[in-house]
Amino acid sequence: MSQSEIPASRRAGLAFIAVTVCLDVVSHTIVFPVLPHLVEQLLHGDRPGAARWVGVLFAGWSLAQFFAAPVLGMLSDRYGRRPVILISVFGLALDLVVTALAPTLTWLFIARVICGLTAGAQTAAMAYVADITPAEDRTQRYGLLNAAAWTGVILGPALGGVLGALDMRAPFWVAAAVALVNGLYGLIVLPESLPRESRAPLRWRQANPWASLTLLRERQGLLVLGVVLLLLWFAGQSINSVFVLYTDYRYHWTPMALGIFCSALAVGNILVQTQLASRAARRLGERTTVLAGLAFQVAGFIAIGLAPTGILFWLANIPMILSSIAGPALQAMMTSRVHPDEQGRLQGAMGSIGSMTGLVAPVAFTQLFAWAISLGHGPGWSGLTILAGAVLSAFAWGLVLISRREVEPGLSGN
Q1: Which fold would CATH assign to domain 208-408?
Q2: What CA–CA distances, in Å, run from 181 to 175, 306, 337?
Q3: Which fold would CATH assign to domain 1-190?
Q4: pTM for the whole structure
């Protein structure tokens, strides 16, 4: 279906979904430049205490999302995507207001938990796209949504840094206002995507992360793809968890150099997600596109982990940018294996996988990084953490390769 063939109401709804996904990422990344300083301010300059509390705050966000994602996914299967998305958007605005007003660390922790609970907007948004998109076009649509998320990666830290220089709490007020306006706009333009006759009954016993993951066992090939998704995201944390520490330790990058690189990386990912991912899936097929993306990721992690200079680090990220073709194709493959009334449950399961990764991987990889640099063998050993990401990506590649008969056929399509 071409863009001109999509009804105007659907085009407006898709634009709203893209903005919502972008704002969800902004709400998470806007805190990066200012949250440690805000925590330190609330602790009256206690820097070691601030470092410990920052870890607690991010863990609280991930834990809340871990439990909320399957519940919100199930509710979207029962009551429709629109109310869940809108409640999540307004909840995000509330979270940002609480953060802006937080007089103590307890209030700040409550705000981060609210943010994790309202992150279900992405869960329902991904299900929304599956509802209104033919199976053959989902790679393209998920590529666009992933590009919207990368736009949030650019905007969040930049907004936090610029506004935070004026006032520590200003970024949260601005983001809250944007979220509120976006929610009001959604009330006007966002139609429901899931017909009443396609909605699932409410089963509260499935409203937990473990029950939501049982769906992966109930559909052919879905468990294999879920494990691949887990390995893909876990591998990504091998560099994301230690990125600032790694580039400072090995290349002595300044915050400005770090910011320039992150912006360039985000732009590259946006271009690949919007221009290359869907074309690759149509020409090669979704499974082959996932294999190609994972192969690029293996090569990229090896090159990054071995890169001795900052310039070679830049060049090593080229295959990493190209590897982002795998994500949209993998998402499309997974959504084609469930019925329309299970899309929310599937996205909830995927959200739980992402939350588990966010809880476990940062701790694991930061500890591995600390061990590697404590050996005293030189800066090159710091790349051991990233080489571990290459190993995980290789396992994912091999799993897709040997499971062809399981992952090739789909179940549903619109």
Answers
A1: Growth Hormone; Chain: A; (1.20.1250)
A2: 10, 46, 36
A3: Growth Hormone; Chain: A; (1.20.1250)
A4: 0.71
